[in-house]
Amino acid sequence: MVKNVNEVLYGNETINLKSITLRKFAANDYRDLYEYASDPQTLEYLVWDGLNSLQEAKDSIYNYYWSRPGIYAIEHNESKKCIGAIDIRPDLEHEKTSFGYVLNRSYWGRGYMSEALAAIIRLCFEKLELNRVEGYHFIGNEASGRVMAKCGMSLEGIMVQEMKVKGEFRDCAHYAITKCQWELLSQK
Question: How does strand 96-103 pair with strand 132-138?
């Protein structure tokens, strides 16, 4: 594992991909952020309650999205619109990370999140030199599980009533990939 994770993340604030770009949030992303962060269908499987106003979207950029490295806006290359977010949450003691993501509902089913997650996994193994990347989704959001599987992650198990979200206990499906597994998949 690299000695200074933040240094590496700050050095990789922009990741250019085929259809999307992962980049630091810009102050003027607040309208795009509000568009997806106020949509009940987009928020259904998130622990986050979302945003209630454009001002909350602005404040969210300043107070959360700019709070640490490793939080990326997902920009659609063709339209230059911020269509979502993805972040990594390193656990340095165990040389692993988890992640979270959200995508504007208008862009679901087009492969953008798989492209973003694959880039994050590559960053974690190649640049941060971590050993493991893990994530979960709530049962009912199997599309998120398909994104993780498409990126080489394996289902490790389902935790029954693992989290209480929005007043309801939710089962969670846990996925992970290790650096060794990723390297084997990358050789194919």
Answer: parallel
Is the pLDDT reported for residue 1 higher than 90?
no
List the 132-138 sheet strands across, edge first. 15-16, 20-23, 71-76, 82-91, 96-103, 132-138, 168-178, 154-165
pTM over 0.90: yes
Check: CB of residue 154 under 8 Å from CB of residue 184.
Answer: no
Report which of 180, 98, 108 is spatially closest to residue 137, judged by C-alpha positions: 98
Average model confidence (pLDDT) for the chain? 96
Alpha carbon distance 33, 15 (integer Å): 19
C-alpha distance from residue 86 to each of 105, 157, 162, 168 (Å)? 15, 23, 22, 25
The one-letter amino acid code at 40 reads P
**Backbone torsions φ then ψ of 49, nearest 5 degrees:** -80, -15
Alpha helices in 38-178 (DSSP H): 40-43, 54-60, 112-122, 142-150
